[in-house]
Write a structure and sequence with these properties.
This protein is of the alpha+beta class. It has one domain: Archaeosine Trna-guanine Transglycosylase, Chain: A, domain 4. The protein contains 3 helices and 4 strands. It has a 4-stranded antiparallel β-sheet with strand order 1-4-3-2.
Length: 99
């Protein structure tokens, strides 16, 4: 994620909306798009940008986390973009501007 190679994540449910900001690994990311998909098609199409070494690696991880793999299952693809190398809350940012 930090180097920009992972530009999406796949989940069973919609977790965020376009424009939402979140922190991960000490950086700030923005949700650029959220779309609905079918698990099998999504895994085949997006395994590289979801941060996996292979389609099989993504499926193996999915099974480990979800305890099943239903190819026709509806999933949510959250597309992301790093917007800041470090997360600064609005309060901290305000303090920083005062100094």
């Amino acid at each position: 994620m930090l180097d920009g190679s992972k530009t999406c994540f796949i989940r069973c449910q919609r977790l965020m909306r376009e424009g939402d900001i979140f922190e991960a690994f000490g950086a700030q990311f923005k949700i650029t798009k959220v779309e609905e998909g079918i698990l099998e098609e999504t895994c085949q199409r997006l395994w590289t940008v979801a941060g996996y070494d292979s389609y099989q690696d993504l499926v193996k991880t999915w099974i480990a986390l979800q305890e099943s793999y239903i190819p026709t299952q509806t999933v949510w693809i959250h597309h992301i973009k790093k917007v800041r190398d470090e997360f600064i809350s609005s309060k901290a940012n305000h303090r920083r501007n005062i100094l």
